[in-house]
Amino acid sequence: MRRPSPMPPALLKAFTAEMTAARTPGPAVQRWRAAERAHILSQPWPWPHTRTHTVMLRLALRDRYVHEIIGQLVRLAVAAPGSAARKYPDGNTGCTRAGLTTPMPIPNDLAALLRGGGVALRP
């Protein structure tokens, strides 16, 4: 994936909406889904990528999910450098159930946003 800079307006709008949903009280499954979608959108940009892992860490702490807490601490350490170096797995949801370096399919709506924002997705 090629990292354009800064985050284009349409991507920023979608990212902000997902981050807001991840922080809004409601069912944990919906909050995690929003955080995962925000993660996919944020990977090309170091600061948004790091912010997403911060939200994921807060969710894990709230849920008292020890494995996820540890995983998010590791991911916080590598998020910004990985984005800056363009070394991150496309489509990865950012959670521990997805391996740290495991590429995953990108939902069609997010792939369209990323491509529209100038992000070259790897095949």
Descriptive overview:
With 123 residues, this protein is mostly helical. 62% of the residues lie in helices and 0% in strands. Helix 1 packs antiparallel against helix 2, helix 2 packs antiparallel against helix 3 and helix 3 runs antiparallel to helix 4. The longest helix is centred in the middle third of the chain and has 19 residues. The chain is globular. The protein starts with 8 loop residues before the first helix and ends in a 7-residue tail after the last helix.
Q: Sheet bearing the most strands, described?
A: none
Task: Give the DSSP E fraction (strand runs of 2 or more residues).
Answer: under 5%
As residue ranges, the low-confidence spans are none
Distance between the termini: 9 Å
Number of helices: 5
Q: Over the alpha carbons, how many angstroms does the gyration radius reach?
A: 13 Å
Secondary-structure element order, as H and E?
A: HHHHH
Number of strands: 0
Shape: globular
Category by helix and strand content:
mainly alpha
Approximate helicity band = 55-70%
Q: What does the average pLDDT come to?
A: 93
Topology:
Blueprint lengths: L8 H15 L4 H15 L3 H18 L2 H19 L23 H9 L7
Give me some keywords for this one:
globular; mainly alpha; 123 residues
Summed up:
With 123 residues, the chain is an all-alpha fold. It has helices at 9-23, 28-42, 46-63, 66-84, 108-116.
